[in-house]
Design goal:
mainly alpha; 2 domains; globular; Protein Smg homolog; Smg
């Protein structure tokens, strides 16, 4: 995974609203002050723009009952654990079929090469960023509660 890009994205996600970050004049300055380089900042904003449904060029919106078959290059980046987690998020209503495609696309965009796989924690962050950027507040809250429930110190 492109760790530099992921670091910028996580910094933005934790400190700003992703949908408003690009339009705020001081965000780029803040990122520069935090030690990020201009090309990393540009890449992060391009990545964020592509998380929004209007930034995606899906030929057709997938139906809710569609079964996702992964391409070979996707399986090299998204191992069985990641693919299973994505399916679980769909089944429990966190990800719509369209959001699933955006998550997969954004994970593939983070992969520097296809031999480098995504980790489950990276997947969770990407899901949170996609839901946040897409304005899916209820799904975001559901994902947040799932993450807290999965934490080692979570009470049951």
């Amino acid at each position: 995974m492109n760790e530099n890009l992921l670091d910028v994205l996580l910094y933005l996600f934790e400190n700003f609203s992703l949908t408003e970050a690009e339009h705020a004049a001081n965000v780029r300055d803040d990122l520069g002050d935090a030690g990020f380089f201009p090309d990393e900042i540009d890449d992060a904003f391009a990545w964020i723009r592509a998380t929004q449904p209007e930034g995606q060029a899906l030929a057709l919106s997938p139906s809710a009952d569609a079964i996702r078959v992964y391409a070979e290059h996707e399986t090299r980046v998204l191992d069985a654990e990641c693919r299973g987690y994505i399916a679980r998020l769909e089944q429990c209503g966190v990800l719509s079929a369209t959001a699933r495609e955006i998550v997969i696309d954004r994970l593939m965009a983070l992969a520097e090469d296809e031999s480098e796989g995504a980790e489950i924690e990276q997947l969770k962050w990407v899901v949170m960023m996609v839901l946040s950027s897409g304005g899916e507040d209820q799904a975001y809250a559901h994902m947040e509660s799932l993450i807290h429930a999965e934490s080692p110190g979570a009470s049951h």
